[in-house]
Write a structure and sequence with these properties.
The protein has six helices and twelve strands. α5 links the parallel β10 and β11. It starts with 7 loop residues before the first strand and ends with a helix. With 272 residues, the chain is α+β, with helices and mostly antiparallel strands. A six-stranded mixed beta sheet has the order 5-6-7-12-10-11. It has a four-stranded mixed beta sheet with strand order 1-4-2-3, with helices on one face. A two-stranded antiparallel sheet has the order 8-9. Helices cover 28% and strands 24% of the residues. It is globular and about 45 Å long.
Length: 272
């Protein structure tokens, strides 16, 4: 995504995060978030969307079940130190298999002159309200961000955060790629409807899910197993025919999940 004039896309990188102990990873995350958010504040910009790339995201990490939980603690601390405690910004967080090509923690932030309106998926527990099964500090992000109608950059569009085969707070269809892809598409459709101020029942008659999915303009799909990339691309392109679909081989933040998607809606969705 290329930012428009008045917007900024910046990143913070922590080298050698793949070998950092839990305390080191948490501190690196804290510093990255604090640095980016303070930079936005100094420029009088509001954070609109984060992308997080966490080496070894599902590997064990001391007392935590895996490193994603450590990352979440660092993110929350960094946001608090920058004066953003309790704020929900759309975000995704993935890793890379083996981390051979990306051993560094990387946090990217899109910021703009006016804040976005957070949106949640009514089928899912808000991530910031997850039970302690998912860590002592829950993930601090919103499921989507709706840009203001006055924005010069995709006015009224919805920026969808990382979305997977999760209902409530439970992962569904472990090991079943096609079922996870279908559940992910349902969640995308429900989230698109919610972001436009509508209610959409899963499996709605008349192809209402597909009506919303057809309004996606860009879709990025993270796929855990490289061999699944072609099949996932075909399935998601069939359900989201108007979207430009890009695929990335990446670890997902839950070991049982095989794919995660994010995207950008067309302006037309917000106006329809």
């Amino acid at each position: 995504m290329q930012p428009a004039p008045g917007h900024s896309l910046v990143e913070a990188v922590a080298p050698a995060a793949d070998t950092a102990d839990p305390a080191g990873l948490q501190d690196a995350t804290r510093l990255a978030y604090r640095r980016l958010l303070r930079r936005a504040a100094d420029a009088r910009l509001a954070p609109l969307r984060f992308w997080n790339y966490v080496p070894g995201i599902t590997e064990p990490a001391g007392d935590a079940a895996h490193r994603y939980m450590v990352f979440n603690a660092g993110r929350a601390a960094g946001m608090a130190e920058a004066g953003f405690a309790g704020r929900r910004v759309a975000a995704s967080a993935v890793g890379f298999p083996g981390d051979a090509d990306a051993p560094r923690l990387t946090v990217q932030m899109l910021a703009g002159p006016a804040p976005a309106e957070p949106a949640e998926n009514p089928r899912q527990v808000p991530a910031w309200r997850y039970s302690d099964r998912f860590g002592d500090v829950p993930p601090a992000f919103a499921r989507a961000a709706r840009l203001p109608a006055s924005a010069g950059f995709l006015p009224g569009a919805l920026l969808l955060a990382g979305t997977a085969s999760v209902v409530g707070e439970e992962s569904l269809h472990p090991g079943d790629l096609a079922a996870q892809a279908a559940e992910t598409c349902t969640n995308l459709a429900v989230l698109l409807a919610a972001g436009a101020g509508r209610a959409l029942a899963p499996g709605a008659a008349g192809g209402e899910e597909d009506v919303h999915l057809a309004r996606l303009r860009d879709l990025r799909v993270y796929v855990k197993r490289a061999a699944d990339l072609p099949a996932v691309g075909r399935m998601l392109q069939a359900r989201c025919p108007a979207a430009s679909v890009s695929l990335m081989h990446a670890e997902i933040c839950r070991p049982e999940l095989l794919l995660e998607a994010e995207g950008v809606s067309s302006e037309r969705l917000a106006e329809a």
